[in-house]
Structures are given as C-alpha cells and as structure tokens.
Write a structure and sequence with these properties.
The chain has a five-stranded mixed beta sheet. Strands 4-5 form a two-stranded antiparallel sheet. It is an alpha/beta fold and 151 residues long. The protein has five helices and seven strands. Helix 1 runs parallel beside helix 2 and helix 4 crosses helix 5.
Length: 151
C-alpha cells in the first residue's frame, strides 16, 4: 500500500511517503512566495500515485494572529483540495490520537523526532531539530499503517 502522510503547516508543513517496496521518503511541503505551492504538491501526488492519504486534523491555535491563521487555513485547504482532486481516500487524525498511540506527550517535538529516528533509522532528513514536522508526518503515516490500513 502507498500512503501519503501530511503534517500541515502554513509554510512549515511536511510529508512522509510510504511505499511497501522502499524506505519511506520525508520532506517539507513545497512553498513559493510564502505559501504552500499547490501546483508542485499536485505534481508530487500525481508522481507517487498513493492509494490513500492521512492528514493531521488541525485547527487554529489560541493567540495565533489573524494573518497566520488565514495562511494556515489556506495551506490546509490546498492540501485537502489537491488530495480530493486525485480522488484519494482522505483520513484525518487528531494529534492526540496518533501521539497517544506512540505514548508521546502533546508538546514534546524532540521526543517525536527521536522516536521517528529509532523506528526508521534508514530514513534521510530527520537529523535536525527543525525536522520535527517530517518526523510527525512519518509517525502519522506509521500510525495509519498500523491501525487503519490492516484488513
């Protein structure tokens, strides 16, 4: 099964692509001019042809500015729109659900990154603290494959 997992962000989103034939691939979502690049994201989805997508269910955060909230909402809308256009089954998961599965606290980004490195030592692109979004996407995809994709 090929799965695309996404940790959304206005300009800091990340993905993990799982294909049963190879090591997962992680990276940052493409950005142009301070906004998620929908055309490039569409190209990625078209190239990989995933069977399903799992995206973290997110909401605005308290004390987040109006402009930041709008940019974040736009990015999430672009992600959902591209996935729907490809007619992909879209699964949403809250941070609490996938983090509970791995026994992670809600705010410890470094613990999630360390766990992702331990579970997937061959995955490239997790070596810096700023790669916590990539690690989250990897764990979101792992959660999906472990709990939802089994017959």
């Amino acid at each position: 099964m090929k799965v695309l997992a996404i940790d959304p962000g206005a300009i800091s989103g990340a993905y993990a692509y799982f294909d049963s034939h190879c090591t997962p691939i992680v990276g940052d979502l493409p950005v142009v001019d301070g906004q998620l690049d929908g055309a490039h994201f569409d190209h990625m989805v078209r190239q990989w042809k995933p069977d399903a997508a799992v995206v973290e269910r997110v909401a605005s955060m308290p004390k987040q500015g109006v402009a930041s909230t709008f940019k974040f909402g736009m990015a999430v809308g672009i992600i959902h729109g591209v996935l729907f256009c490809h007619r992909l089954p879209l699964h949403l998961v809250t941070p609490g659900v996938w983090k509970k599965h791995f026994k992670l606290s809600g705010t410890d980004k470094e613990a999630a990154r360390a766990l992702a490195i331990r579970l997937y030592p061959a995955v490239q692109g997790l070596h810096l603290k700023k790669h916590h979004g990539r690690a989250d996407a990897l764990l979101i995809g792992d959660w999906f494959l472990d709990t939802r994709a089994k017959p």
